[in-house]
Design a protein that fits this description.
about 40% helix, alpha/beta, binds zinc ion, 18 strands, binds 3-methyl-2-oxobutanoic acid, 8-stranded parallel beta barrel, 3 domains, Double Stranded RNA Binding Domain
Length: about 550
């Protein structure tokens, strides 16, 4: 996809943005903490696409990864720093803003900090984010250090990061369960050593809103030098309180919120970006705070992240769930018809959701199609446009009305594909009661161009297809999750299948990790026929698996 690469002289763009105290900086960690969700592993290309979209959404800081985790992570962060981290983007007022700050996470060790710097250095605005645990349970059982040693390590490692980079963020991990008086000592050391942002994580989602707000207030008021830094909050959702805690932290004076799209992340996840941003937007008169987020990009970003990570959004999820703007009860519908605000506190359009809008029909031409996609923010190359137009015509033949949601899904399905090893040529199924579901599958191997045909039997039509595919592809794997939803309403709606498979991949090169490991791969497929959508989803997951294997094998060979 073309990324609006109007050639702009970056020396014209200010390298920093003055911070308005009434603006909350949005630090997005979808690509780091979010990617730690089980099974949410992203390819480098997917990370880059998401980073571009986050920049377009207007986030102030992108935490692009944890470079010390693997050479692949380091390379992915560096690529984001070299590209997204050097491209200005339009702000809320339509004028160009500097690119987002690109942050890399590092434990408080020299080698992690070296790697983080190597990765973020090319960005116009790089940041090193270093952390060490401060709760007694972590200090004693995980770090096996003393409190004094933690203070010393903080001072040394923040100073070490500072010699590379002006912008250093420090986090006392598990701050929510740490002794506040001890936190003051650690944070004071971090400020003395040069930290510019102090982030307070509720790592295990333990605190309650009032308690967390009080902690932020206490730390701000008692930490020497606290008035010289930006205070940040980072909450996990183990008790379903991440958004409430984040808002309490902002009310107590924090001016950076660490969030992820759709709230994905470790265990129960992180604070959802869309929830914090829209709470500040809807209740602006209460909070008196603003963000730099272009809210109309929220829905698209949410869909993209869900599609790439395979983390399906629950229908009743606040802001971006399928039911968030749906009204079922008659009394609600009646109220809505009389006055929209009776049951809706914000318009769907504010988050960029244009669900029911009929956009194009069977007779729409190429020009109207291109203009519509551009309006929706997609800038396709001529070849991509041609392919998208072909798919659109195919869809318009099968489906009476083509909405923006259909177009979003169609383009996303076309663009966000892993490298194709296997291509579906045809699938055919016979199923019903009193007969054994039987499928015939024809696949083409994209590298050899050979075509293979196999039959499969199963407990149902989808199982039969997967058996047929397995006979051709021959990669042992286990289907661990399968879900099906309709893109729009109606019997002719497109089916959107998401699934996860688990399979073995070779070990990453490294001294301690030589055994093959099991990894989860996501596949998504779209079609008006649910059986075809299911086949597409499975093939996508297998192609992803094969792409990962090839990448890992070539890294091992290079070593
Ligand atoms: O939850 C946490 O403590 C973190 C830190 C690394 C900031 O993610
Ligand atoms: Zn976290």
């Amino acid at each position: 996809m073309n990324k609006e690469k109007d050639v702009v002289d970056i020396s014209d763009i200010p390298a920093a943005e003055p911070h308005d105290p009434n603006v909350v900086l949005i630090f997005d960690t979808t690509l780091r903490d979010g990617e730690q969700s089980p099974g949410a592993t992203l390819t480098p290309e997917e990370k880059l696409e998401i980073a571009y979209q986050l920049s377009r959404l207007g986030v102030d800081i992108i935490e692009a990864g944890f470079p010390a985790a693997s050479p692949g992570d380091l390379a992915a962060v560096r690529r984001i720093a070299e590209t997204v981290g050097r491209e200005p983007r339009p702000g809320k007022d339509g004028r160009l803003r500097p690119p987002p700050v690109i942050a890399g996470l590092a434990r408080a060790t020299k080698s992690d900090i070296d790697k983080a710097w190597e990765a973020v250095q090319p960005a116009l605005r790089p940041r090193i984010h270093t952390f060490i645990a401060t709760s007694d349970i972590h200090i004693q059982h995980k770090l096996r250090m003393t409190r004094e040693a933690v203070i010393e390590r903080t001072r040394e490692m923040v100073a070490y990061a500072k010699q590379y980079c002006d912008d250093v963020e420090f986090s006392p991990e598990d701050a929510g369960r740490s002794d506040p008086e001890f936190l003051v000592q650690v944070l004071a050391a971090a400020i003395e050593a040069g930290a510019t942002t102090l982030n307070i994580p509720d790592t295990v989602g333990y605190t309650l809103p009032e308690e967390f707000g009080n902690l932020i207030r206490f730390l701000r008021e008692n930490t020497p030098g606290g008035d010289r830094v930006i205070w940040s909050v980072h909450c996990h959702d183990d008790l379903g309180l991440a958004t409430a805690n984040t808002l309490a932290g902002l009310q107590a004076g924090a001016r950076q919120a660490e969030v992820t799209i759709n709230g994905i992340g470790e265990r129960a996840g992180n604070t959802a970006l869309e929830e914090v941003v829209m709470a500040l937007w809807v209740r602006k008169s209460y909070f008196g705070l603003d963000t730099n987020i272009l809210t109309q990009e929220i829905y698209r970003t949410s869909e993209m992240v869900s599609r790439y990570t395979g983390m399906v959004i629950q229908p009743n999820k606040a802001i971006v769930g399928a039911n968030a703007f749906a009204h079922e009860a008659g009394i609600h519908q009646d109220g809505m018809l009389k006055h929209k605000r009776t049951y809706e506190i914000m318009d769907a359009e504010t988050i960029g959701l244009h669900h029911s809008r009929l956009v194009l029909g069977k007779h729409s031409g190429r020009h109207a199609f291109r203009v519509k996609l551009e309006e929706m923010g997609y800038h396709l190359s001529p070849e991509e446009l041609e392919e998208a137009f072909r798919r659109f015509k195919e869809l318009a033949d099968k489906k009476k009305t083509v909405t923006e949601a259909d177009l979003e899904a169609l383009v996303a399905d076309q663009i966000y594909q892993p490298p194709e090893t296997w291509v579906i040529e045809a699938v055919q199924v016979q199923s019903g009661n009193n007969l054994i579901p039987t499928a015939v599958v024809r696949l083409r191997n994209a590298s050899s161009d050979e075509v293979f045909t196999e039959a499969g039997f199963g407990t149902g039509p989808v199982d039969a297809i997967y058996q047929g595919i397995n006979r051709i592809v021959q990669i042992p794997n286990r289907l661990i999750e399968f879900s099906l939803k309709a893109v729009t309403e109606g019997l002719d709606a497109q089916a959107d299948v998401t699934l996860r498979i688990e399979a073995e991949v070779p070990a990453s090169p490294g001294p301690n990790d030589q055994a093959p490991r099991r990894q989860i791969f996501v596949g998504r497929g779209l079609d008006t026929d649910i059986v075809v959508a299911s086949a597409k989803a499975y093939i996508q997951a297998l192609n992803r698996l094969l792409a990962t294997r090839t990448a890992e094998e070539s890294t091992i060979e290079v070593k």
